[in-house]
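FORM 7B: Structural annotation worksheet

SECTION A. Query
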Amino acid sequence: MTARRRAVWHKSSHSQHQTACVEVGRLGDGAAVRDTKNRAAGYVTTTREQWRAFVEAVKTDRFA
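SECTION B. Predicted structure
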């Protein structure tokens, strides 16, 4: 089974009026991320630890 079938995809409510959005699908062992405008292009998967590290980096402005 692929992530596309297992994941329930979510788009941030903060992205409703934006054009550069991604969707996140939670997987049992991590997450999958895809481009909202080009879902057919596929997705990237991460482990739980990688996703936690990414979210923490976003929350602490490490990409600013």
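SECTION C. Observations
Strands lie at 9-11, 22-27, 30-35, 44-47. The radius of gyration is 12 Å.

SECTION D. Sign-off
Analyst initials: ____
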